[in-house]
Amino acid sequence: MDDQTLVLPSTNNQQAESERLKKAGKQSSWIWKHTTLLQNKGQPDRYKCMHCEKTFVRSGTGVISRHLKNKHNEKLRNLDTQSTLTKSGELVLPFKPMGRIAVKDKLMSTFLASRDKVITILKGGKVALTTDLWTSPNKLAFMAITAFLLSDKFEPIEAIIGFKQMLGEHSGINIANTFFDTIKLFELQERVKI
């Protein structure tokens, strides 16, 4: 390299380049994280691929982008054409759906957090419980349990604490077991008075 060539890594020059592009009303590109800016007096600026020795005239991102995807795809495996670059230069990968175990875990943690909030609210006063039982058109039996109470400001609070499928018939024992399991889940078993 001669003394007239100035090499600037794009990570150091990225903010200045990003600011220049913002002022010009243009978007930043993910390719600048994989190139180095070469400036030579009297010659057009060039970008050098950080993964090989290939250089490109600084005229846009299309040629460099195709080069990176065609020649260095294994290094860019996590990149996707749907990825976006934020204003701060962070690459945001596309949405990846959660697996079945992760969905189950997320649902359970959300339920437990919500249940804890409801338990805290229900400890604030006397609670009235109501039930509703019905059979769906496809012959499935359900039981809903709703808790009612008045807040300290005498505002009504209502929460559905149970929505369960009833297995078996609508017998008194079956209804009582489902009801008791639900009030126990919300720590109301000691507060129920008949």
TrEMBL record:
Transmembrane residues, as ranges? Answer: none
Entry GO CC: nucleus
Q: Which residues form the BED-type domain?
A: 26-79
Molecular function, one GO term: zinc ion binding
Localisation: Nucleus
**What is the predominant subcellular site recorded for this chain?**
nucleus
Which keywords, in A-to-Z order, does the entry hold?
Metal-binding, Nucleus, Transcription, Transcription regulation, Zinc, Zinc-finger
> What PROSITE patterns does the annotation carry?
ZF_BED
PANTHER family the record matches: ZINC FINGER BED DOMAIN-CONTAINING PROTEIN 39 (PTHR46481:SF10), ZINC FINGER BED DOMAIN-CONTAINING PROTEIN 4 (PTHR46481)
- What is the name of the protein in this document? BED-type domain-containing protein
| Annotated organism of origin | Daphnia sinensis
